[in-house]
Amino acid sequence: MATHKVTSLEVARLAGVSQSAVSRVFTPGASASKKTVEKVRKAAKELGYRPNVLARAVVSGKSRIIGLVVAYLNNQFYPEALEKLTNALQERGYHVLIFMASQQAGNIDSVVEEILDFQVDGIVAASVALSSDLSGRCRAAGVPMVLFNRAQDDPAMSAVTSDNFAGGRKAAEFLLAGGHKKIGYIAGWEGASTQRDREAGFMAALREADIELHARDVGNFVTEQAQEATRRMFANDPPDAVFVANDHMAIAVMDTLRFELSLNVPQDVSVIGYDDVTVASWPAYNLTTIRQPANRMVAETVDILLSKIEEPEIGPRRVEIDGPLIVRGSARIPEGWKT
Amino acid sequence: MATHKVTSLEVARLAGVSQSAVSRVFTPGASASKKTVEKVRKAAKELGYRPNVLARAVVSGKSRIIGLVVAYLNNQFYPEALEKLTNALQERGYHVLIFMASQQAGNIDSVVEEILDFQVDGIVAASVALSSDLSGRCRAAGVPMVLFNRAQDDPAMSAVTSDNFAGGRKAAEFLLAGGHKKIGYIAGWEGASTQRDREAGFMAALREADIELHARDVGNFVTEQAQEATRRMFANDPPDAVFVANDHMAIAVMDTLRFELSLNVPQDVSVIGYDDVTVASWPAYNLTTIRQPANRMVAETVDILLSKIEEPEIGPRRVEIDGPLIVRGSARIPEGWKT
DNA sequence: CTGAAAGCGCTAACAG
DNA sequence: CTGTTAGCGCTTTCAG
């Protein structure tokens, strides 16, 4: 077994063919005679040769690397999605270079620059917003990008989300059907499209029912801030139901309600979340929530990205995937509610 | 703004210098006069030039890419570690190429081969075991590897873990001090060194106290299997305390105990986990557990890996980091237990 | 189908 | 310090 990097040239010599013949044998699209293939494969195995994908990328202009920007992994939805995304891309012969975009605002722009340095074939930006000229740079560089779980006003940008407006609406309808009148909302980070759309859908349904929002506070998608928001909201004239912008916060809200404020869920107050992360189904929470279909969202993301890679002239695509309301025990179930 | 890939040559022409001058300006170690640097930077900015790191990698032999193999992300410990690891490496100028090693056994070997194809400068293998000849291939390729949260018999392999033996022991001592006599153990996947060491430490302490293990079952680090193990273990002659090989399973065990078997924790049965993941501290679980210090584990992993990259002749290093017992409410607290 | 030859974009001696 | 000259390992025309 060789102790240094084996090159195609060495394989060529051992196989008694030209270096380009070796290249062809290892290049999916290329043609070589059975005989050549055989000789080359044998020599390659003997030397332990494997093509250098970086060199290949330099000359071909295709790296088969996808850059993934992700802001945080503490919201369970993201590790789940990341795992699925990586697997899906691996299956199609791509690999994922991961970049954490720390909370810093400007940071994200420099992160994308770094990604571009790797000649990635595409970029997936999960739950982050980019400055509009950044999208410009990517387009200029000919690198397609798709937003995952976040939309952007820029209509030239492809994006995959769940149907957040419809989801927010479903939450409201369930609460209203349950007879709740004093309904509160705990918002996520207000810069997020997901937050905005969920709230908009929720409010639209309340408005149609002629119910005013009883209370509103902001949790910024952060555990501690959701707890504080809960305390403030229940300090006086508490609501009898709350819709929380995602499960990650909803869990914190439930804990605060039960263990700090000694309220019963759902007897004293109904709670609905958004995402349907794994914890939501654990009996300790048993959280009623709107499911974000991670599988389909990932599949769409991959589809869009790869088709843009293969046909660059293709236009942007925005997909909103509908997710069902998952009825569990954290919110009062309306009489005769059809399952 | 250019609409195609800008090369160093174009920058050179615009700046009126040679192409190598441009290269030097963008190469950390190299030297260039103030004047040249200025001219080049200006031209580069004007054209939107950034060096192609792949081409650089091909010629320099250093990709500044670290391959990360990870088996699953549903155990919360891993996303946390992944995030910290990525950040730590990013800070030191490295980037992470991520590979999911599906459950398949042979799979992992082929995954490592793929990683090697990218000329990575190093590999971090999180919670996976490799065939011994795989480590050979990496060494032959001159690519250092360190195991994260898993040790291997092969003494030539660097590894970072918590002190699992000591941790298991601490769990036992706490339970024994609490006066428990019928103590059970729910094991993780028995191929994992973490599982083996935790159990060994746990058993050693029981033996010293002349207490026999009351019951043992296997949960394989999987939620559903942990639930089944719990059901079996409590079907008849149930224990009054259980040590569970990690938090991920311990949560499932607690849920099963409380909601399925209607047992109170810790009144009827004490539960101790291992990891101290975020959920463990949530009031709904309030799980007593052994902390794995993810920050320090990651820091050590990065240190070892980078020093091996910089000085390849350096020997393997194995680090076991001690983690404290975090006393919460899921296990009876012995009288006068020193906090 | 095959080999020779020309590069991909960049770094790294090497003289000056 | 700078430009010239070789490559890195590979893909891709181009004749044959």
Protein model, in words:
Chain A is α/β, with parallel strands linked by helices. The first copy, chain A, folds into three domains: 8-51, no CATH class; 62-161 and 294-321, Response regulator (Rossmann fold, 3-Layer(aba) Sandwich), CATH 3.40.50; 164-292, Rossmann fold (3-Layer(aba) Sandwich). Helices cover 43% and strands 17% of the residues of chain A. Chain A is built from twelve helices and twelve strands. Chain A has helices at residues 8-15, 19-25, 34-47, 53-60, 77-91, 107-117, 132-141, 164-177, 193-208, 223-235, 247-260, 294-310, and strands spanning 65-70, 95-100, 122-126, 145-148, 158-162, 183-187, 213-218, 241-244, 270-275, 288-291, 318-321, 325-326. In chain A, helix 8 runs parallel beside helix 9 and helix 10 (223-235) packs across helix 11 (247-260). The termini of chain A are far apart. The model of chain A has no long low-confidence stretch (mean pLDDT 93). At the A-B interface, helix 4, helix 5, strand 2, helix 6 and helix 7 of A face helix 4, helix 5, strand 2, helix 6 and helix 7 of B. Strand 2 of chain A pairs antiparallel with strand 2 (95-100) of chain B. The first copy, chain A, binds a DNA duplex (16 and 16 nucleotides) through residues 5, 7-9, 17-24, 26-27, 30-33, 36, 51-61.
Please state how the strands of the largest beta sheet of chain A are arranged side by side.
2-1-3-4-5-11
CATH class of the largest domain in chain A: Alpha Beta
Any idea what the CATH architecture of the largest domain in chain A is?
Answer: 3-Layer(aba) Sandwich
* Overall body shape of chain A: elongated
The stretches of 5 or more residues of chain A where confidence is low (pLDDT under 50) are none
> What oligomeric state is this?
homodimer
CATH superfamily of the largest domain in chain A: Response regulator
Helix content of chain A: 40-55%
The structural class of chain A is alpha/beta
The radius of gyration over CA of chain A amounts to: 25 Å
Order of helices and strands of chain A: HHHHEHEHEHEEHEHEHEHEEHEE
CATH topology of the largest domain in chain A: Rossmann fold
Measured between the Cα atoms of the first and last residue of chain A, the distance is 63 Å
- Please count the helical segments of chain A: 12
Share in β-strands of chain A: 15-25%
Give the averaged pLDDT of chain A, no decimals: 93
* Count of strand segments of chain A: 12
Largest interface: A-B, 58 and 58 residues
Whole-number count of domains of chain A: 3
